[in-house]
Design a protein that fits this description.
about 350 residues, alpha+beta, 7-stranded mixed beta sheet, two-stranded parallel sheet
Length: about 350
């Protein structure tokens, strides 16, 4: 019962009024207390918080569509997408391993002369890997007569041959590449004849540079102990079930004159393609751990254009301006052309950059 009604009831009762209301029952008082504790309709309305309107689904669809386009671009043009985002702001960022032939030459750079402390300065090779790390090896799989494990072993041995023939410090100083020669099938007579003649009487047909990189130590000295490389190894099934492995690698050698105090750095750039068969001993006479040479080609920039003498002979200092050049301009860092295309160019070409 409301307070004012209760007070009126008490007053009328005291005055003896006959029409006094009856005292509410216990249940009525309980219901009254419950109603007092509940908020009024107005209070409930003020406490209502409407749900936040949803953002349109169209926005999410647009974002998803753009993300799909970006992934498609990366899949179709990975090299170009990297170039878009790399730009010129990070010229020293190492390049990812080469797993297929590039579609274009490396971008142009500011021409800067190399120094003893920065022998690859101003060259695309500054972003290449060092030594064997720049020669990418593909995942192995069973091919021809070899299991997956045997293929993996053959690929490792192939890279070991490239290291022994083109990166071994002793060989680069003019030594005999005994470790690399030991990898070649000793029963391959034509190749053994070539090896026997090449070091004794080098010529254009029997030139040790076709397989090995060597400098004459009395004339040329390498700068530091780093040779920059970029290239790849691939494989397929060859003749008679052999594992045919192809290698295509470019080597960049920084050099100075052998005289003490020489400081003018030059670079010799060698691109070499070697194809070999790891033969099935049940079908070809061979020795374990050796391969048979199928073909070998070389393209040299600033390595000498005269009569072959078995050594790379770069033009040093003033010799750069007096060298005979009668061939086309060549970008030695452009790996987008095949070696067959490169070999079609006759004469002693002029490097468009070093």
């Amino acid at each position: 019962m409301p307070e004012d009604e209760w007070e009126r009831f008490q007053r009328e009762l005291a005055e003896g009024a006959s029409e006094a209301p009856e005292e509410p029952s216990a249940r009525a008082r309980m219901v009254t207390r419950r109603l007092r504790k509940q908020p009024s309709a107005q209070e409930v309305w003020r406490g209502y918080a409407p749900a936040r309107p949803r953002r349109g689904r169209q926005g999410r669809y647009v974002v998803g569509f753009l993300a799909s386009l970006a992934l498609l671009a990366v899949a179709l043009f990975p090299g170009r997408v990297v170039d878009w985002f790399a730009g010129d702001e990070q010229p020293d960022t190492p390049l990812a391993a080469e797993t297929s032939r590039p579609t274009q030459a490396p971008p142009a750079q500011v021409a800067e002369r190399p120094t003893l402390s920065e022998p690859f300065r101003g060259s695309p090779a500054a972003r290449w890997a060092d030594g064997a790390a720049g020669i990418s090896v593909p995942p192995a799989r069973a091919t021809g007569w070899m299991s997956t494990r045997q293929v993996a072993d053959a690929l490792d041995r192939t890279r070991d041959f490239l290291v022994a023939s083109s990166l071994d410090p002793a060989v680069l100083r003019g030594g005999r590449p005994a470790k690399a020669i030991a990898r070649i099938n000793p029963h391959q007579k034509d190749v053994q004849d070539y090896l026997a003649t090449a070091f004794r009487e080098p010529s254009r047909t029997n030139d040790p540079l076709l397989l090995f990189s060597r400098f004459e130590k009395t004339r040329t000295r390498l700068v530091g102990d780093v040779v920059k490389t970029r290239g790849r190894i691939t494989f397929e099934q060859g003749d008679r079930g052999a594992l045919r492995v192809s290698t295509d690698v470019t080597y960049v050698y920084p050099v100075v004159g052998a005289l003490a105090g020489s400081t003018e750095v030059e670079r010799t750039i060698v691109r070499r393609e070697v194809v070999m068969d790891w033969d099935d001993p049940a079908k070809v006479i061979t020795e374990q751990g050796t391969f048979s040479l199928v073909s070998y080609k070389i393209d040299v920039t600033n390595g000498g254009c005269g009569i072959p003498n078995g050594y790379l002979t770069p033009a040093l200092g003033a010799e750069r301006d007096t060298g005979a050049a009668d061939g086309p301009g060549i970008d030695p860092y452009n790996r987008s052309t095949s070696m067959d295309q490169r070999m079609e160019k006759k004469g002693c070409g002029v490097a468009t950059r070093m």
